[in-house]
Amino acid sequence: MAIHFRESLDAIGVAQDSFGKTELGKSIELAYSFLSITEAGLYHITAELAPAANARGGKVGDAGTRAALAGRSSAERASHR
Question: pTM for the whole thing?
Answer without folding.
Answer: 0.46
